[in-house]
């Protein structure tokens, strides 16, 4: 959330920056100005009436002391009280409306973010590795996985509906190997502390990281038997997490950290759940856009003056996964019109997928500056400071396990239909070097009879 005083005192700057983002935020600022003016007018009138009441009270006391009749002034005082109460309600209503408006305003883009309206205006920062090519027709991962018997989309749909997958045999092992590899890399080499957080969170947690109220339709809400009231941010209702960013960032909600503890770097492996609202017809094949998937998430808490450097480190740590696995990728700097709601600056990492002939996002690394910290009330106290201030939060996928999995299938596929296991994962696969059909052949279509005996 943006700072109310900053918005009030820098309306032109805020409007310019918000106009560069997608969405009609200028209208919200017009509403902000109107409501803020109403609030200020109510407070000014309230202060004037309070001064009049104080003056009349003094006069009433003087009249009573002299034995004179003060009934007329007392009637006037009662009238002022009634008018004051109405103004108090008006100011309180304006305060609530301002709070609601502030919750809907996205973060301001960092000055280094390029202007643009869509993904087509994003900037390629660097490209690492040449796109993989083969001397045979490259297949997409869903064809590879199904032919090897390690991915089953049809049976998953029977169990749970569309956009779910079952992993079998070496495929399930590969998913687990990737997660363990990523966790080991980030904890042993990059210095992150591993966290295993809950995968269900309350409304306050989602508000703190910016998913609520704006993105409620993208989330899965649990039936808590009436515990949740729309528009409120409670402690006793539950949602499935869309990313480990939510529970991990909220570890320090409503806390003030010691300066000496910063920066703090966490990594967490969790399942993630997204409704994919608005994505009908997009990426209907394969693992790209699933309702349930796994991620290793990187989250940082740092001093404001360090967040740009920490953002670069975090992005490099995510890149290290791709480089160690030998996967070609590129780093993109997102333009103002393509950034997420809470982000001030975002780098996307896009991995090359030869089976589809394109680069696909596999990690999004963002600096939120104080936006999330203000919503979640996370502060730190600098040495010698009279009062604490909001710290900066950052996060990024390090990486999305399912998308790394499919990138391996497509980049390491072989002409005979098998898939070579990257060298970095062989020890995590018990020394196996090839994913072959034998490991999952028993689930091939037609092996079992539908309906049972």
Commentary on this structure:
With 453 residues, this protein is α+β, with helices and mostly antiparallel strands. It folds into two domains: 4-104, Helix Hairpins, CATH 1.10.287; 119-440, Bira Bifunctional Protein, Domain 2 (BirA Bifunctional Protein, domain 2, 2-Layer Sandwich). The protein has twelve helices and 18 strands. It has helices spanning 4-9, 11-19, 25-66, 71-104, 141-148, 153-160, 169-189, 203-209, 245-249, 307-325, 371-376, 401-411; strands spanning 123-128, 151-152, 166-167, 193-195, 200-201, 220-221, 239-240, 255-258, 264-273, 292-302, 329-333, 345-353, 358-369, 378-381, 389-390, 392-400, 419-420, 434-435. The strands form five sheets. Strands 1-11-12-13-16-10-9-4 form an eight-stranded mixed beta sheet. The model has no long low-confidence stretch (mean pLDDT 91).
Descriptive tags:
alpha+beta; eight-stranded mixed beta sheet; Helix Hairpins; elongated; three-stranded antiparallel beta sheet; 2 domains; BirA Bifunctional Protein, domain 2; 453 residues
Number of strands: 18
Low-confidence stretches: none
Shape: elongated
If helices are DSSP runs of H or I spanning 4 or more residues, what is the number of helices? 12
The CATH homologous superfamily of the largest domain corresponds to: Bira Bifunctional Protein, Domain 2
Indicate the proportion of strand residues: 15-25%
Distance N to C terminus? 59 Å
Q: Which strand order spans the largest sheet, edge to edge or round the barrel? A: 1-11-12-13-16-10-9-4
Q: What composes the largest sheet?
A: 8 strands, mixed
Looking at the structure, the CATH topology of the largest domain is BirA Bifunctional Protein, domain 2
Mean pLDDT figure: 91
What is the CATH class of the largest domain? Answer: Alpha Beta
CATH architecture title of the largest domain: 2-Layer Sandwich
Give the SSE string. Answer: HHHHEHEHEHEEHEEHEEEHEEEHEEEHEE
